[in-house]
Amino acid sequence: MAARPYRFLRRTLAVGCLLAAAALPAARPATPSATPPTTPTNVIPEPTVLRMLQMNLCNSGLAGCYTGHAMARAAEVITAEAPDLVTLNEICAGDLSTLRGVFQTVHAGQTIVAAFQAAGDRPSGDDTRCRNGQRFGIGLLAHVRTPAAPSNVYAGTHPTQDLADPEERAWLCVDVDGALLACTTHLSATGYRVALTQCDHLLDTILPTIARDAGYEPTVLGGDLNLRAGHDPDVRSCTPRGHQRVDDGRLQHITATTDITLCCRALVPMRGATDHPGLLATLTIGPSRRPA
């Protein structure tokens, strides 16, 4: 199958406010007798625990699974479950803005990072569009502790696509606090072997490339992979050795690198609003240092 030229975009989301240097008080000169504090090298930092929610909302307005009720139910789920990280598939660009508002209400006073990546449209060479004309694709929501720091966003379309499908599937990753690389994707639904190739390339090439070029961070991926465990092809064949994985019993999966512990998987009923349940998991990141 001919592969479309590989597109890999990096952009930066500025979050928080910039303070003018002139507004900051002048620093006092250090006194010769001052002794700098020391940090024991054998201290084990507290692990970071995050709740992650993956949802496929089927909200293009064009697919047979569209109901018109997915956004209302997604807002209810985010409000009730209060996840720290949300990965979203099959949404319109405006849906992300709406759900960002819900997420901000849940995490009042915190800085929110929201990122969107459109799927490509092969016939037009443009983005795939929802029935309402908005761009169609995938999204991610997270809150950060360091609002003054920019968040790097990495995104692109998979180099291998099903040529029988005009929609070109995409992937998206966001650097969260310099401590976690959070990613999502929606893989091919019309060619399972294509989905497996996309999964392999994302986990074996794209994510390692980001780690090499931008610095390694624990990484979690949530998405509708359109692959199952125990079926042919098997989603486990594209999961790197040692990575943990949970799923919804069907096509949605959350997978994480070896320095993240996944637990407490739960399915959230979407009450007929979409054809996929919500998939919840708890991520425990670290500690990374061990006693001497």
Automatic annotation (TrEMBL):
Gene3D superfamilies recorded: Endonuclease/exonuclease/phosphatase (3.60.10.10)
State the SUPFAM superfamilies in the record.
DNase I-like
Q: Which UniProt keywords apply?
A: Signal
What is the organism of origin for this protein? Micromonospora noduli
Q: What start and end residues bound the annotated signal peptide?
A: 1-26
Question: Which InterPro entries has this protein been placed in?
Answer: Endo/exonu/phosph_ase_sf, Endo/exonuclease/phosphatase
Q: Does the keyword Amino-acid biosynthesis apply?
A: no
Describe the location of the Endonuclease/exonuclease/phosphatase domain by residue ranges.
68-276
Q: Record keywords: Signal included?
A: yes
Q: What is this protein called?
A: Endonuclease/exonuclease/phosphatase domain-containing protein
Coiled coil (residue ranges): none
